[in-house]
Amino acid sequence: MLYREAGQFKASYEADQQIFPILQDRVGVLLLIGFFALAVPLFADQYWLKAILIPVLIFSLAAIGLNILTGYAGQLSLGSAAFMAVGAFGAYNFMLRIDGMPFLVAILLGGLCAAAVGVLFGLPSLRIKGFYLAVATLAAQFFIVWALVKIEWFSNYSSSGVITAQEIEILGFAFDGPVSKYLLTLFVVVVMALLAKNMVRSTTGRMWMAVRDMDVAAEVIGIRLMRTKLTAFAVSSFYCGVAGALYAYTYIGTVEPEGFNLDLSFKILFMIIIGGVGSIMGSFLGAAFIVLLPIALDVTVPVLLGDLVSASFVSNLQLIVFGGLIVFFLIVEPHGLARLWQIGKEKLRLWPFPH
Amino acid sequence: MNLKKTVILGAAVAGLLGSSLAIAAEQFIGLPSYRVGPYAAGGSGIFGGWIDYMQMINERDGGINGVKLAWEECETEYNNARGVECYERLKEKGETGNTVFQPLSTGITYSVLDKVAKDKIPLVTMGYGRTDAADGRVFPYVFPLITTYWSQATTMIKYIAGKEGGTDKLKGKKIALLYHDSAYGKEPHAVLEKMAERYGYELTKIAVAHPGNEQQSQWLQIRQLKPDWVILWGWGVMNPTALKSAAKTGFSREKMLGVWWSGAEEDTVPAGSAAKGFTAAGYNVAGDNYPVIKDIETHVYAKGKGNLEDKSRVGSVYYNRGVVHGLITVEAIRKAQEKYGKGKALTGEQVRWGFENLDLDDKRLADLGATGFLPPLKTSCMDHEGSGRVKYQQWDGSKWNVVTDWIEADKEMVRGMIEESAAAYAKEKGITPRDCSKEM
Q: Which residues cross the membrane (chain A) (predicted)?
């Protein structure tokens, strides 16, 4: 009923190779981007922009990064937060040490630093798989955070190891207000998400999926495992790195290496599990779920129960409800929110007259 | 069941109505608390004490000059991103917006450091946070009140010198710093090294990886080194582990000196008898026989309005630290009301002035029933620290006993480092320091 994928015939290769080959998808995505780029800044207040939308966008980007590695290439990683840290500290150092460094170039270079580190820590993936690889990436998580604290050059010899993001200025325009920072984040995230969407249906993406589904078979049909796995690590870490740089520059402002700890890596992993492993849209849904649900609980639970039970109980109850909801979602839909959306679409196709 | 539901709903609705119908002026204080996670013990104690003190002010005095205190908690889970969300959420609440932000987490402090000056909300960090913010010219909105890590490190050396019989006796002594391997643990390095140069003691720095529940190799190193003193710069589970490992290694706990985040009941009780004799710094003391605590007991707990479920924690180190937070916040608001109008709800910008002009001398502390409970405090535009004094407390196996008077920090040395570091920050960020002679 909503719309059908079938029946739209393409007359040219260009039409067939678009990121969104179906007209309604194209219109939908354009409307969505238009809504977030034009309508939201008009109506959302500071709190929504600074504390809700910007982090959701940034974590979506990090989740896309992890999804490329875990969801598409099948390599489990617990180092996403560390790669974010590399991106943040990388961008900071490029901005600091090179005069007149353009901001967008700096975050891309930060992402490239993360990609290089990611490739380095991806090397063990050639030999080890599954949970054992997760342990190897865990080493990256601890090593990188340790190195950023230990080597003072990274934080410009700050006594406490923290870095303060410089002001963002692009072509003379200062991005200092919540609206401009939000729009900048949105721009970077949208561009990179579209790129990711395109990449996963290209040769590279298909090679990743082949390796994920069965690496021996992939090797037999001529896919070079080393190159495929390492590109997955590189691209994934690049995305995480850019997300980290945005985290430092458009969201938090002042970051410390410990902020990028294992908890954050797990959080990003939960995002893709809840959102949908192997889905770009799932990364957005998962990030929104993991970021927003605790906040929603923190706003609603004390109002409902505030005067009846102690504050400690309220805080613990939120965690219990949060955990319970995650378990509930995984039982009801183990393939994540993206799959729910897909089922919803299939159902709507027949609505209101199902078989 | 249905009846119960109805009662709960009714109470919730009544609570909502009650809070929105308040007519008298209210001063709103947003509390970014943490009651879950690894540091929940500290968070619940400190925020519990703080809320109890404000409740006591409302009950006993009817607020500050008639302005009732209102507050709302926001759970940060000690997580930076959640802390920022809480900061933004609490910012606009209440009649005049959030009055003061005190996150009790260095990470969250750094995350909001740049935002507070823009939003004009004072950021108060007692005993943690960014040390060089004590230079009020560069950081007008940040108040590392009472004392900082650097000041504390100098008092530790003073304490050791006192035990050894004078600073000249420090020469050739071996001091080991057992520190939490993080930004927090690295804070005292520069100060202790500088003092080592001056006094000629030998400093060995031994890192413990987070969380620090395994310290075999570190204590092996300490056994080989045979230091005269061990300074424990720990956090959370690292503290009881260090005490237990010291007992196993046979290192005297009397020669172990803890930072104020190592010196609470939560650090010593889990170590059992191994903690006996351990000494730690504190900018507040433990104990419940102070008039201010007695007032909280009569006006809050006797009426069943206490915040803590476990009333026995009243008078513990963390609880009393929370009372200090409440006390200083209330006094800053009181001070600001003197300038901007008594009986009115004030903005964060106005309360900032109150924090900058605090003067809690012995007489005022006696009026507040807190003589000896916290050090006398006097802040100014130049000095956002205000005191720099700590007391040392020793654990006797069941409670903390104060063993020293207030020990003054080596102001001259710390101040120089603070100004140097603040100037570097101002340069990096392009801040022009305020001219303090023009501030009133």
A: 27-44, 50-69, 76-95, 101-123, 130-149, 182-200, 230-249, 269-296, 308-332
ipTM of this predicted structure: 0.85
- Per residue in B186-217, pLDDT (tens digit) is 889 989 999 999 999 999 999 998 788 889 99
Judge whether A85 and B123 are in contact, CB under 8 Å: no
Residues of A in contact with B19 (CB under 8 A): none
Give residue A82's pLDDT: 96
Q: Quick check: A311 and B34 CB within 8 A?
A: no
Interface contact B75-A318, CB threshold 8 A: yes
Would you kindly state where each structural domain of chain B is located, as residue ranges? 25-147+287-378, 150-282+392-409
* Fold of domain B25-147+287-378: Rossmann fold (3.40.50)
Determine the average pLDDT of the residues in B215-240: 93
Mean pLDDT of B304-308: 87
Local confidence band at A258 (pLDDT 50, 70, 90 cut-offs) = confident
Q: Which fold does the domain B150-282+392-409 belong to in CATH?
A: Rossmann fold (3.40.50)
Encode B20-36: b = buried (16+ Cβ within 10 Å), e = exposed. eeeeebbbbbbbbbbbb
Q: Name the minimum distance, in Å, from the CA of A272 to any CA of chain B.
A: 19
Q: Report pLDDT for B2.
A: 52
Say whether B186 and A52 touch across the interface (CB within 8 A). Answer: no
